[in-house]
Batch of 3 targets.
Target 1
Amino acid sequence: MVAGTSAAESLLERVTCPHCWQKFLPEDVLWVAEHRDLLGDPMLTPADPQRFLPTRFNVEGNAIDAKNFSCTRLACPKCHLAIPRAVLELEPTFISITGAPASGKSVYLTSMVSELKRLLGTTFALSFSDADTVSNQILSGYVEQLFGNAEADDLKPLGSLIRKTVAATTGEMYNNVRFGTQTVAYPKPFLFSVLPNRFHLNAEKAARLGRVLCLYDNAGEHFQPGEDSSGSPVTRHLAEAAALLFVLDPTMDGRFRELCQARQELRQTSGRDSYSIPQEPILHEVADRVRRHARLRQSERHKRPLIVILTKYDLWYDLLEVDENTEPWRELPAKSENGGGPKRYALDIPRIEAKSDKTRELLLRISPEIVNAAEGFAEEVLYVPISSLGWATTVNAEGQLSIRPADVYPYWVTVPILYAFTRCLPGLVPALKRRK
């Protein structure tokens, strides 16, 4: 039972845990004990409160624990990890962010989330907020460091603002659960609620269109062969994902660097004129795991969108020969019945796809193996150039890539996930028609 009669009436028929991806009935959800003596859940740690299936409730509909304390938090009946109430009412949408080590996944995720919170309400009439502040704590800290830094005018190494995702499954990005003698490490998801507000074109369908967005940021090392097992299912979310985002750093490719007019800055950060870190094997490993977990044949292409995100566009934009660099959405005509409400916009799909075509042509000339790997795996592939930090990165005296937080100006970082919304969740983000 969930607190409140009205809440119970809006529950999903089946709930999906964002940690272990188990599906269960809402009446099977566990509650988290509140009394300080009820510690030591057998599947978690001695410091974790016990989980229980309640038999007593107070007048507000909240469970009563064994020490007669009212409880408010919920947990998954399989893994016992805490889940937000939003997952009981809103369907989940899983988005997996993958890529090679040091390709910029965490920086991109930080910048994207900050921009979504800033733009979605005013541009697409969508409420975007934390569904679980505890689960999002690490990412919220990164956002604060990059966009709310008290020393915003000081030049800071990027590594001091956002730490590299730790590959060890005992780190802060993973939850360890004991199943008898077996300990399983699950990646911590970042959870956000996305709901149409009253100015949305489909405001009356908010309950149906609303989603819990579940984002996963894995260390690139976890896509090395053999790194995914029953004890460490760190990338099993790939099979659940409505869209896959593959972060590609073109400047890791020596062929790309040779053509880039900003290669002098790149040499300063690497200490050598040219180097190459292969990223194609990671993409192949992602494809193999999706096929394995989604039970796809080797000859079968994935039917969900694969979006290849090319980072550090500020260093190589001159190679693309695209002049227009404004945000890709257009204002919609005002509806007379909205009472002079805020402007509303639609995602310019033809423009995004045109830029994708140009980016694909560039990759075919310089790194054709990436295109072959992507299009051999997925039926629909989009190539999106982005800059997580903008145009003001520089190199400090120690040769570290640095920026002043006040100068961070992200470019197109919301485009990949907004495009994914238009493909996976029709009606949530208004969009101009795709090309035939």
Target 2
Amino acid sequence: GASTNVLGACAARFDNTVTYKTPTFAGLTVFAQYSFDNDTTKEDLSGSKHGTEGKANVNRYYGMGAQYKAGGFEGVVIVDSINYNSSEKFDGYRYDDDSLSVTAGATYNFGVVKAYVNGQYFDNVILMGKSTKFNARADSVAGYMKGIDGYGFNIGADVPAFGGTAKFIVGYGNGEIDLDKADKPEVDMYQVGAGYIYPLSKRTSVWAAADFVSADYNKAANIGDTEVTEFIFGMTHKF
């Protein structure tokens, strides 16, 4: 969850999704997904009847990814997109273009520490950040709903400590809305987080974490700078 605070395309649930996974060969596995209609319960905001699955009048998702494992190394690359409903409107504006994101991540287990990094380029997403949100804007000049373009990355580490695992993460993200004017709304997001997981048994563990996120907006964004501090804790049991 913490790593999504500085990214634009994050985990989501979609209806009517088919998934294909190849057999693993020499540590490489390839995945493909497609949703014929991301949310069948959603009413069309233009006031018309909900569209037809697999047609241009509903939102559709597609993505491809590859995972590679070798020894203590694991790497992942994902390319995905939301093909927006061509008839849906927000405040009278249609989507400017479909979204696109390219996400990559890697981990390596050194034994005494497990290091990881992930990064993402995103184009025309409607929301950036999980805790501090930056939303798409309507462009009255162009007549479209403009999404957010940008990038984000995280660096983290897992360290064995006192019978459990301590976790640390830092991240940065930048997003800009491509409105047809000289000063474009823009945000810089920063985060730092730490947590700890302690296993009570092979199937049960307790955990706690804290996360600080700062969002610095430029004048054109017309949003006050935001700081969010989160504390979470819980227990996990695997059946």
Target 3
Amino acid sequence: IALHHVALAAPERLLVFGRDVLPLIGHDPAQSPASLPEINHHRGSTPLLVERSLDFLLAKPAARSGFWRRWLD
């Protein structure tokens, strides 16, 4: 259902906070989130950036800088 909604909304890219969401978009939990640079759905593919949570970013300055580097890439 989540992939269907992504296809309907047709975003240019997705920013996902919380790794609990990844199985809803077809990601195998045994793999790292970094191995999912985009998600495929019936209307094409959408670039994806995954981060643990906003709380995690607020608590860890090093995580914020890493997130920012990935965001700029």
